[in-house]
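Bug #77: duplicate submission created two jobs. Keeping one. Sequence:
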Amino acid sequence: MSKKTIGEQYLEDARIEQAQKLIQEALAEHSSKITGVKGSDPELVEEYEKTLKEFSEYRGGKLFYDYVGSGIGKGALVELCDGSVKYDFITGIGVHYFGHSHPGVVAAEIKGSATNTTMSGNLQQNSDSPKLFKLILDQANKYDAGFDHMFMTSSGVMAAENALKMAFQKRAPAHRVIAFEKCFMGRTMAVSQITDKAAYRKGLPPTLAVDYIPFYDENDHEGSIKRAVSMLEKYFMRHPGDYAAMCMELIQGEGGYFVGNEEFFKAICDTCKKHDVSVIVDEVQTFMRTKEMFAFQYFKLDKHVDFVNIGKNSQVCATIYRNDHKPQPGLISQTFTSSGSAINAAYYMINEVANGGYLGDDGKIEKIHARFKANLIKLNQKYPDLIEGPWGIGAMVGMTIYKGDATKSKDFTLQLFKNGVLSFIAGASPTRVRFLVPAGGVELEDIDKVCEIIETTLNECK
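Kept job's structure:
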């Protein structure tokens, strides 16, 4: 037996294990009281409304939903501070992948919180970080992609910023980027210039030169490829040597949950490679949501991309990259990379998805999508003028309601919330309703119940 550090002895102390056991027992006892959707408790409403009003004032604007969680849930269900219980099918816009109060996640968080460092900084990280890095890189290289490095950071948009900085340094003096129309990449000063939504740039000075090409249209496969590649070539001819990177969402998130295509992406990547333009794949929303761990693997782009950004589901955020894009010292750093709780939760969740039957054609993610899609198709057949596809992919489910009318779609999500299901809107022309299913916490029967509530709400709002 190898010698153990004091830290290892501490974390294996029977008292720590006993505390963990007691917390799990308390969690199981109290979460068992959460059995389904229910309305607010009249005795809690007044104080809850006061909290909502104060919170809105503190943050400088009203919350989209009247949502403040109580700190407990069960699977796909979550309790709010007014005592109501709802299905969380948006998961904090993609953060709570294992739902609420998942015993394994809570155990991992407690272990991380018991260590000496609240927040791991760039200069000082504990032994849980190397373990997590290896797991993520091993998963990224499942099909011999050849990624060499990973840099952990505090948010998905910072992962994007770091990828951009490395691409610019690699391709200097190139200073332009290309992205897809209707893309979303974040809201920092630089990345807000890439996100194709004018409202997110209002009042901001221009910081990047960005050009756009159309995203894949499943109704015109060959035409999509021809238009995108032709536009790329025109940009490269117009601004020779000025492009550092192509930024790609493989499945558009805020753009409306539209799914790309392998041949389409490979044609773009090959064109970029021909002109020495780096390819950045943004997987902050898609990571762990398809039948492969990464969407770039789903589209067989393992050898075609230079950077992959992850976040949300991963609990920690990171930029994965190849050695030929390794930055010079000083280009990227970070005071906070992540918390000990998040790092341990990340390892637990990613390892579970990798090895717990989530991936592949017969995995849980595909079963979730098939069940949700089948329910929505039935609703489409019953109400063809109220609800239409496409239905998204994996644990990213989308639908068009009321012909994509923006006001009606927003009103629908608000009524759906009142009826017990959290969703969100995405895209424009058409506006779509989206769901980020908590794959680690949901049961297939939950999807059936959610779709019953969707049907009720469709009829209430039409």
